[in-house]
Amino acid sequence: MKKAPKLDANGYRKFSIRDCLAYAAGDLGCNMSFALKGTMSIFWTQFMGMDLWYALLLIVVQVWDAINDPLIGSIVDADKHKYKRNKFLTYIWAGSIGLIIGGACCFLPFPNAPTFAKAIIFIAGYVVWDAFYTVANVPYGSLLSIISNDVKDRASLSAWRSVGSIFGNMLPMVILPFIIYDKDNNLIGERVFIAALIMGALGFLCFQFMIRNTEIRVETNVSVGEEAPKFNVFKAFGNFIKNRPAVGATIAAMGMFIGMQGAATAVTVVFQSYFKNVQISGIIQLFAMIPIVLFTPLARVCVAKFGKKELATFGSICSIVAGLGLFVAMPNNTGLDLIIYVVCQLVFSLGLGIYSTVSWAMMGDAIDYNEWKTGTREEGTVYSLHSFFRKLAQGVGPSLVLVIMVALGYVGANEGNQVWEVAVNMRYLVAGTYLFSAILQFVGLGLVYNLDKKTLAKMNADLGRDVLTSTETANSDNLA
Q1: Is residue 183 situated within a structural domain?
Q2: Deepest in the core among 122, 325, 342, 390, taking most CB within 10 A?
Q3: What's the structural domain count of the chain?
């Protein structure tokens, strides 16, 4: 006989590790599709031979992002239909189906096609992938604020989302370099396409697990008999700009993605032509994730003691120190140079990990802040605008870095055989990109985001939310 779940005072299944695993599976599903984006620049410059054309096209598709993210977010917010489970879960289910093939559309291997045909293939593939990714990802990000209104639970969900993200990046990061590169460090484009199909199917399975195990505990639908408020996307955008926590968290996220996505192509070239072993790049990046893994179980306790803003700001300072350290390079690439690189990656990863484990909980608080200041709760719009600016960083960042790479001598046709001077330039470009990323995170978290521990407690009290205290955390099950 199946054991009945324990219920809370409101009749919902009690929050437990099951909720954390389900939410982590959602980001695992997202990253099964998203993780290959780091390979996109190498695919389109070295295999498809586009170079600066790719940088231009990547900026062009951000026009679609400008329409896509806020539009879908506003559609979700304005949707007042009664779904069997929840409207967010329904949208996620639809998006997860499209992601099975959406990611592969970005890697259609036709290197001998005319340039105009390649441009059409890229734009069409990206638009298809981005549409389905947004349909799944925007509602997924909004889920955190309605799974529970308890700050402790949100801290756990945010930390476990980071776990899902980590494992979602681990698979392609470690395994793919051994599959998609040959012994001369050159990319095999056809294998990338097949890998994208497989990862899309794995992502679909992760989303299905999440959907089946997610419990919605915060009611946000309009009550029967009430007139649904008219949705105004321009007013919602104005509210977003006035929402300092949302703006600060968005600036920090843009910095994070400029570091992760912007430097991705240059990092690959560094391992191809500077360290001359692209296959170990995934192992080293996996090793750099150790601090994130070690910190994640401590996130709940640290949030209770120091506060999310304070903790994340400290993480950005760690990343700044690491970015400065990456400028230290030994002449002629000695073994010590690789050690310095790995150590700085570890410190940078620690700072990034501290921020990433609380970043989604900070956005959940920003959604509450919007309600606190305006009286209107707009999960979908606030998160979709946040997502839009993140995607802007993901698109513009790699484009600008690629332009700088070409200016510094990078030639896509040379693949894994860039001249030594170019390899050295790429080494310093990675350091500069990481440092800029960390500084932007510090500005967003330390100077703009204004929900420190004391202000957050006042907001939660005014909204009737549960307040996270160190005593409660010490006495609760450590779900993070």
Answers
A1: yes
A2: 122
A3: 1
How big is the chain by its Cα radius of gyration, in Å?
22
Residue 384 and residue 139: Cα distance in Å, rounded? Answer: 8
* Residue range(s) defining the domain that contains residue 203: 17-216+240-464
CATH number for the domain harbouring residue 252: 1.20.1250.20
Strands (E), 87-140: none
User: Residue 467 pLDDT more than 70?
Assistant: no
Per the domain annotation, does 211 fall within a domain? yes
Give me the pLDDT at residue 386, please.
81
pLDDT value for 226: 40
Residue-level pLDDT at 66:
61
SS3 call for 150: strand
Lowest mean pLDDT among 49-53, 247-251, 255-259: 49-53
Q: Do 328 and 340 form a contact (C-beta atoms < 8 A)?
A: yes
Separation in Å, CA 161 to CA 124, 355, 411, 466 = 30, 12, 38, 21
Question: pLDDT digits over 202-240, tens only?
Answer: 889 999 999 999 888 886 554 333 444 455 557 667 777
* Structure-derived torsion over alpha carbons of residues 71, 72, 74, 80, reported in degrees to the nearest 10: 140
Give the bridge partners for 187, in sequence order.
Answer: 181
